[in-house]
Automatic annotation (TrEMBL):
It comes from Alistipes communis. This is Outer membrane lipoprotein BamD-like domain-containing protein. Residues 474-501 form a coiled coil. Pfam families: TPR_16, TPR_6, TPR_8. The keyword Signal applies. PROSITE patterns: TPR (PS50005).
Length: 996
C-alpha cells in the first residue's frame, strides 16, 4: 500500500511541477512542499501538520492549493488509521466532486473498507473506481483486494477472475497464487493445488505454510507413508496451532498404516498441545487402544464417538460393544450393537450387530418395549438366507414365549405365511394371553375371538384347556349359562386337577347351575370346589355361601346352617351375608331366640352390607312372635333412619300391623298412609289401603275413608280394584308366556286404563323387559326412566342398573349420570355402590363440562363406598383440568398421589406428569430417578413409559452423554409399538438432533 501511494504521489508531483508557481505564495508553497516531502517519507503525522498550515498561509483567491492540501490530509488520516479517516475521505469527495483526485480517493476509501473487513461495502466502493485509469500498481491492489472480497463472500469463480489478472512475477503474485491454489485444494483439484503450493514453498510469504497444504494433499490421496515421513520434520519446525494440526494428521497417517502405537503417541502429543478431542480423534484413539487389546482404556474414547446416526458411530459402537462384552457388561454391549445395526452404512457390520443386538436383548429379558421380538424379526426379514437365521428364529420363538406385549407379539406372528409347529405353539400361547388382556379391559368380543383362536390351534393341551375355561367366563358374563356350562365342562375334561383353574371351573360351573335355579347341581359343584380349594379367601367364603344357599333351597336347613357358619369363619367380607343367612336359617329351624340373638349381634356390630336387612328381619321376627311392642320399636327406628332402603315400604306396612295389634289404630293408619304415599302404584300400597279402610270402618267412619281416598288420589272402588288386579294378572300371564309383542300391547293397555293402578311398578318393569327383548332401546330407556322416577320399590336397583347402562351406551351422559347416582343409593353391597359411583363419574366427565366434572369429583370424595376406581379417576380428572388451565402447581400433588400405582392408565400418565414437572423445575437428577422407578414398576401403558424414556434421553443429551442418549432413543425406535402414534417419530427426531 505504501509503495503504491508513493508512486501515486510521484505522479502527482509531476503534474504539480508543471503548474504556475506564481499563484502560490511563498509561505503556503513552503508548507505544501515540505508536507509532500514528509508524506513521501511516510511521516504521515508530520506531513499532516504541514498540510494543515497551507490554507492559513495563502489568500482566499488561491484556494486550489487548499484543495490539494485537503486531499493529502485525508490520505494521511487513512495512513494513520485514524477513526475519522473514512469520514475525511467521504467529505473530500462530497466537497470536491470535480477534483482530479476523485478516482484515487474512491480507491483509497474502498481499500479502507476492505481492510476493515466490511466486504460488501468495499465491493460497492470498488465498483465506483475507474479501473482503467488506475496505475498498474493500483490495478494489482484492486485485483488482489476484490479477489479477496469475493473469496470471503464464497464466490470462488469470480475471485479467481481477479486473482488470475495479477501478473507474475509481481508484488502480489504469490498472494494470488496462494488463493488460486487454496481454491483448487478445497475443490479437490489436487494436481493444480500441488503445483501451486509446490511453487509457493519457495515463497518468502508462503514458504512456511505451503508444505502443510502439500501434506494435506498427500493425505487426501492416501499417501500415508509420505505423510508420516514428511510430517515428522514439519512438526519439528512448527509451533502453535500449526504444530497441533500436524500432530493430528500424522497420527491419522499412522492409523491408516496400521501402526496403532504410533497413532496413540501422536494423538497424545496432539492432546498435550491443546488439540480438541472430537469424535474423529476419539475414534482414532479408541480404536488404536482396542487394537492393542486395551479394552478398558478404549471404552471411554469410543463411547465419546457414539450418538449421531452415521458411519462413524456405527464403527465405534460396533467395537465398543466388543469391549463391553469382554468386560461382562451385556447391557451396554447390547446398546452399542443397537447403534451399529444401521444397514445404510457398512452392511457386514450392520448384519452382525443386528443379530447380536437381538440375541443380547433376549438374554437380558426382552427389553422394556419388547425390543428383542422386533429386532429378531427385523434380522430374519433382512437376512433370510443368513446362516444365523435359524438361530434367530429359535431366539424369536423363545422371546415370544416370554413376551408380555401380547398384541405386538400376536401381530408379528400372524405375519408369518407358513408358521411351523414351534411358531404355532407360540401363537397359541400369545393368542391366549392376548385374549386375557382383552377380557381384563372389558372387551369380551375381542377376548372371545383371541381365545377361540387359541383353542382352535390346539398344539398345547394346557393352553387349549385354559382358553376353554375363559371362554366359559365370557359366556357367563354374557348371561349365556348353557354355553358357559359347556365350556367349563370342556375345560374339566382336558385339564389336570393340579391346575389352579380346575377348582375354579367347578366354582364357575356352580354359578351356571345356581343362576338358572338348578340347585342340586349347583350344590354338587360348589361342594366339589370347596373340597379342592384350600385357601381361606373370598373365593372360599363365597363358594361356602353358595353351597349353603343351594342346600337352603333344597330344604337341607341344618346342613345349610353349618355351611353358613363355615363361610363366616373364613373371616372375609362374605361373613356378613353368612351371618345374616344363618340367622334366617335359625328361624326356619324354629330356633327363634337364637335367631333374634344372631340378628341383634349383627345390628350391634353395625358392620357390613346386611345391617339394614338384619334390622328389618328382626322387626318382622318380633311381629311373627307376637312381640308387637319390640317389633314396633325396631321398625319405627328403621323407617326413620333408612328412607331409601328397599325395605322401607314393607317395614312401614309391618309397623302398621304392629301398631294395630298394640291397639293403636291411629299410628297404624298413619303408617299405612305413608305406604300409599311412598309407593302409590304397588301391591303393598293396595294392601295398605285395605288396612286403612278396615280402620275407618272399625271406627264407624266410612265417609272418612272415602274422603281420604279422594284426597290421596287413589282408587277405593273395590270393583275397580278388582278389575285392576284381574287386568294386570292377564297381562302378566301373557308376559310370562314369552309372547313379547302381545305382552307389550297388553301391559300398555293396563297402564293406560289404570293410571293409578296398584301394579304400575310391575307393569312398567315387565314392559321395559319387553322393549329390551325387542331391542327397542329408546323405548326401554323411556319406560325405565318412568319407573326410576317412582318411589323406591323392589325393582329400583335392577331398573337403575339397566337404565344407567343403556343411557351410557347411547351417549346420553346426563341421564346416565343421574341413573348411576340414584343407583348408588339403592344397591346393597359396597362393591355395587363402588361400581355405581364409577359409572356416575365417568358419565359426568363424558359430558365434557369441566365445572360439572369438578363438582362430581368433589361429590365422589364424600361418598363412603365410592371405591378406588371412581376416586382415582376423579382425582385424575381434577389434575388434568387444573393442568389444562395452567395450574400445574395445584395439579402436581394429585399427580404425585396417583403415580404410586402405574398399572392404571391414570397412574401411568400421572407418573409421566410428575417427571415432566420435575424436569421443568430444573432437577434432572430427580427426574432420572423417577423415570427408572416408573420403568421398574412394569406399567402396561407403554405410551407413557416411552414418553418418560424420551425425557430420559433428553436428560442424557443435556449432559452431553450422546452414547446413553442415543441408546435410550434407539430402544424406543427398535421396540415401541404402535409405530404411528408419534412416539417413534419423536425418538427418531431426537436421534437426528444429536451432535455429529
Amino acid at each position: 500500500m505504501r509503495k503504491g501511494v508513493i508512486v501515486l504521489i510521484a505522479a502527482l508531483g509531476c503534474l504539480w511541477c508543471g503548474a504556475d508557481a506564481s499563484v502560490l505564495t511563498s509561505g503556503g508553497r513552503t508548507h505544501f512542499d515540505r508536507g509532500r516531502e514528509l508524506y513521501a517519507l511516510g511521516r504521515w503525522a508530520d506531513a499532516r501538520e504541514e498540510f494543515a498550515a497551507v490554507c492559513g498561509a495563502v489568500p482566499q483567491t488561491e484556494s486550489s492549493l487548499c484543495v490539494e492540501a485537503d486531499y493529502y490530509m485525508a490520505m494521511c488520516a487513512m495512513e494513520l488509521k485514524e477513526a475519522g479517516a473514512e469520514a475525511r475521505l467521504a467529505e473530500f469527495l462530497r466537497r470536491n466532486p470535480e477534483s482530479v483526485h476523485v478516482n484515487d480517493v474512491e480507491f483509497a476509501l474502498a481499500s479502507l473498507l476492505c481492510t476493515a473487513g466490511r466486504y460488501d461495502e468495499a465491493q460497492r466502493a470498488f465498483g465506483k473506481v475507474d479501473y482503467a485509469t488506475l496505475s498498474p500498481e493500483h490495478r494489482q491492489q484492486y485485483d488482489i483486494r476484490m479477489g479477496y472480497i469475493r473469496f470471503q463472500q464464497g464466490d470462488y469463480d469470480d475471485a479467481l477472475r481477479y486473482f488470475r489478472r495479477i501478473p507474475s512475477p509481481s508484488e502480489y503474485s504469490d498472494h494470488a497464487l496462494y488463493y488460486i491454489s487454496y481454491i483448487a485444494y478445497v475443490r479437490g483439484d489436487n494436481a493444480m493445488a500441488r503445483a501451486g503450493f509446490t511453487e509457493l514453498s519457495r515463497s518468502a510469504a508462503y514458504g512456511a505454510v505451503a508444505p502443510f497444504y502439500l501434506l494435506q494433499i498427500e493425505f487426501n490421496e492416501g499417501n500415508y507413508r509420505y505423510v508420516v515421513t514428511t510430517g515428522g520434520s514439519l512438526i519439528d519446525r512448527a509451533a502453535g496451532e500449526r504444530r497441533t494440526e500436524l500432530e493430528r494428521i500424522v497420527a491419522e497417517g499412522w492409523f491408516h498404516l496400521g501402526d496403532y502405537g504410533r497413532t496413540e503417541e501422536f494423538l497424545d502429543a496432539y492432546r498435550r498441545s491443546g488439540g480438541e478431542m472430537g469424535r474423529n480423534e476419539n475414534y482414532l484413539l479408541g480404536y488404536s487402544l482396542y487394537r492393542q487389546a486395551r479394552y478398558d482404556e478404549a471404552r471411554p474414547c469410543l463411547q465419546q464417538v457414539c450418538g449421531a446416526d452415521d458411519a462413524l458411530t456405527q464403527n465405534a459402537s460396533y467395537h465398543l460393544a466388543d469391549c463391553y462384552l469382554r468386560g461382562g457388561d451385556k447391557q451396554r454391549a447390547m446398546q452399542s450393537f443397537a447403534m451399529a445395526a444401521n444397514e445404510a452404512f457398512d452392511a457386514a457390520i450392520a448384519e452382525d450387530a443386528l443379530f447380536n443386538y437381538g440375541k443380547l436383548q433376549y438374554e437380558l429379558g426382552g427389553g422394556l418395549f419388547n425390543e428383542a421380538i422386533h429386532v429378531l424379526n427385523r434380522y430374519i426379514a433382512q437376512y433370510p438366507t443368513s446362516e444365523r437365521a435359524v438361530q434367530a428364529r429359535e431366539l424369536l420363538i423363545a422371546a415370544y414365549y416370554n413376551s408380555r406385549n401380547y398384541e405386538a407379539a400376536y401381530t408379528a406372528l400372524k405375519h408369518y405365511p407358513s408358521p411351523d409347529g414351534n411358531l404355532r405353539a407360540a401363537l397359541q400361547k400369545i393368542a391366549y394371553f392376548r385374549g386375557l388382556e382383552a377380557y381384563s379391559r372389558g372387551d369380551l368380543d375381542g377376548a372371545a375371538q383371541s381365545l377361540s383362536e387359541s383353542a382352535a390351534i390346539n398344539v398345547s393341551p394346557k393352553y387349549g384347556a385354559l382358553a376353554r375355561f375363559w371362554l366359559g367366563e365370557i359366556a357367563f358374563a354374557r348371561g349365556d349359562y348353557a354355553e358357559a356350562e359347556r365350556r367349563y365342562k370342556e375345560y374339566l375334561h382336558r385339564a389336570p386337577r393340579t391346575e389352579d383353574e380346575y377348582a375354579k371351573a367347578h366354582y364357575n360351573l356352580g354359578y351356571c347351575y345356581f343362576d338358572r335355579g338348578d340347585m342340586s347341581n349347583a350344590y354338587a359343584s360348589f361342594a366339589r370346589f370347596n373340597q379342592l380349594y384350600s385357601a381361606a379367601d373370598r373365593y372360599k367364603a363365597d363358594a361356602l355361601n353358595r353351597e349353603a344357599d343351594a342346600r337352603y333351597s333344597l330344604r337341607q336347613f341344618s346342613a345349610a346352617l353349618a355351611t353358613y357358619e363355615k363361610a363366616a369363619a373364613v373371616g372375609t367380607n362374605e361373613k356378613y351375608y353368612a351371618d345374616f343367612q344363618r340367622a334366617v336359617t335359625l328361624g326356619i329351624l324354629d330356633r327363634g331366640p337364637q335367631k333374634i340373638e344372631a340378628l341383634q349381634r349383627i345390628i350391634a356390630a353395625d358392620r357390613g352390607d346386611y345391617v339394614d336387612d338384619a334390622t328389618y328381619e328382626l322387626g318382622r321376627t318380633y311381629i311373627a312372635a307376637e312381640r308387637y311392642d319390640d317389633g314396633a320399636k325396631v321398625l319405627s327406628k328403621f323407617v326413620e333412619e333408612n328412607p331409601h332402603s328397599p325395605f322401607f315400604t314393607p317395614a312401614l306396612s309391618d309397623l302398621g300391623l304392629a301398631y294395630l295389634n298394640l291397639g293403636q289404630p291411629e299410628l297404624s293408619r298413619r303408617c299405612y298412609e305413608r305406604v300409599v304415599e311412598s309407593a302409590p302404584g304397588s301391591a303393598t300400597a293396595r294392601d295398605a289401603l285395605q288396612g286403612i279402610r278396615e280402620i275407618y270402618v272399625a271406627d264407624g267412619n266410612v265417609d272418612g275413608y272415602f274422603a281420604y281416598a279422594e284426597k290421596a288420589g287413589v282408587e277405593c272402588d273395590t270393583s275397580v280394584m278388582a278389575r285392576d288386579s284381574l287386568s294386570f294378572a292377564a297381562a302378566r300371564k301373557i308376559y310370562l308366556s314369552g309372547d313379547t309383542a302381545a305382552a307389550e300391547k297388553s301391559l300398555r293397555s293396563y297402564l293406560r286404563n289404570y293410571p293409578k293402578g296398584y301394579y304400575t311398578d310391575d307393569a312398567l318393569f315387565y314392559l321395559s323387559d319387553c322393549h329390551l327383548k325387542a331391542k327397542q332401546t329408546d323405548a326401554a330407556i323411556e319406560t325405565l326412566s318412568e319407573l326410576a322416577a317412582r318411589p323406591t320399590n323392589q325393582y329400583s336397583a335392577r331398573t337403575l342398573g339397566t337404565l344407567s347402562k343403556l343411557t351410557s351406551e347411547a351417549g346420553r351422559h346426563a341421564e346416565a349420570a343421574k341413573a348411576y347416582r340414584a343407583l348408588y343409593d339403592v344397591v346393597q353391597t359396597a362393591d355395587e355402590r363402588a361400581a355405581a359411583a364409577t359409572g356416575y363419574f365417568r358419565s359426568v366427565e363424558a359430558g365434557g363440562d369441566d365445572a360439572a366434572t369438578l363438582a362430581a369429583a368433589a361429590e365422589v370424595e364424600t361418598l363412603p363406598d365410592a371405591g378406588t376406581t371412581a376416586q382415582r379417576e376423579a382425582k385424575f380428572a381434577c389434575a388434568t383440568i387444573l393442568r389444562r388451565g395452567g395450574k400445574q402447581a395445584e395439579a402436581l400433588p394429585l399427580y404425585r398421589e396417583l403415580s404410586r400405582e402405574v398399572k392404571t392408565a391414570e397412574g401411568a400418565e400421572s407418573a409421566y406428569r410428575v417427571i415432566e414437572a420435575t424436569l421443568a423445575g430444573g432437577d434432572a437428577a430427580a427426574a432420572e430417578t423417577l423415570i427408572f422407578a416408573f420403568a421398574e414398576k412394569g406399567s402396561p401403558h407403554a405410551y407413557w413409559v416411552a414418553k418418560a424414556y424420551i425425557a430420559l434421553g433428553d436428560i442424557y443429551a443435556g449432559r452431553d452423554d450422546s452414547f446413553q442418549a442415543r441408546a435410550t432413543y434407539q430402544s424406543i425406535v427398535d421396540g415401541y409399538s404402535p409405530a404411528d402414534d408419534g412416539i417413534v417419530a419423536e425418538a427418531k427426531a431426537r436421534i437426528e438432533k444429536l451432535k455429529k
